[in-house]
Design goal:
By secondary structure, this protein is an alpha+beta fold. Helices cover 38% and strands 31% of the residues.
Length: 153
């Protein structure tokens, strides 16, 4: 998936690792700084989680602009577990490109979870037709109020 503005969505490559982990951390800190401070994950913790859990368990794609990774999505079956864009490159259509890729990858529909307090993500998903299907609390140690969203074609 490539566009006239030099934006491409492609499969994650091992060379993307450092940039993806960096932007993932930056995006989480931007949206929920108190939660990130409470959780106390170091950059090394993030890299270990990404390498040992996220990558082996998910199909991962990146959005690239001008040769630089600007965001990523990771999915397992019909769960869109991760969709993040570097905070310094948000609101430019890159998240929308990733969301469209998710629709292409999971054409029968998918679901995701986000924190109730993450109004940016909630607005983003709702603007793309996702519907709130449940509310709950994320698993420990996070234990934050969350929202389940679903998208069906």
């Amino acid at each position: 998936m490539s566009g006239p503005e030099g934006v491409q969505v492609r499969r994650y490559d091992a060379a993307d690792f450092e940039e993806v982990v960096r932007l993932w951390r930056a995006a989480r800190i931007q949206v929920m700084p108190e939660l990130e401070a409470r959780m106390g994950h170091s950059p090394e913790d993030d890299a270990t989680f990404f390498r040992e859990q996220l990558l082996p368990e998910n199909e991962t794609w990146v959005v690239v602009e001008g040769g630089d990774v600007r965001g990523f999505l990771a999915r397992k079956d019909d769960l869109l577990g991760y969709l993040y864009v570097d905070p310094s490159h948000q609101r430019r259509g890159l998240g929308s490109r990733l969301f469209e890729k998710a629709r292409e990858l999971i054409p029968g529909g998918f679901h995701l979870y986000t924190h109730q307090a993450n109004t940016m993500a909630r607005s983003f998903y709702e603007a793309r037709g996702m519907k709130e299907t449940a509310r709950g609390v994320s698993p420990a140690p996070e234990s934050e109020p969350d929202v389940r969203y679903g998208w069906t074609p």
